[in-house]
Design goal:
Helix content: 10-25%
Number of strands: 4
Largest sheet: 4 strands, mixed
Order of helices and strands: EHEEEH
Strand order of the largest sheet: 1-2-4-3
Radius of gyration: 12 Å
């Protein structure tokens, strides 16, 4: 479907801080519907550039339906 979806992996996150690279990606690709930041323990949402940023524990990767089509 050629829709870009940014995914980052971070360790030792204590708060849902949105990585600078992810913000740049969202600005460059306005059609990206959302972004995901996999980490060790945060499970919450934030927003940036008018889109949802999902912070998910890395163990939840298999539960995300959109990833099942690429892994």
């Amino acid at each position: 479907n050629r829709i870009p979806i940014p995914i980052e992996v971070k360790s030792h996150l204590r708060a849902p801080n949105i990585p600078d690279g992810l913000l740049k990606f969202l600005r460059k690709y306005p059609k990206a519907p959302f972004a995901v930041v996999f980490n060790e323990n945060l499970n919450m949402n934030a927003s940036a550039e008018g889109r949802v940023i999902y912070f998910k524990p890395w163990q939840d990767v298999i539960e995300l339906d959109f990833l099942k089509t690429v892994i």
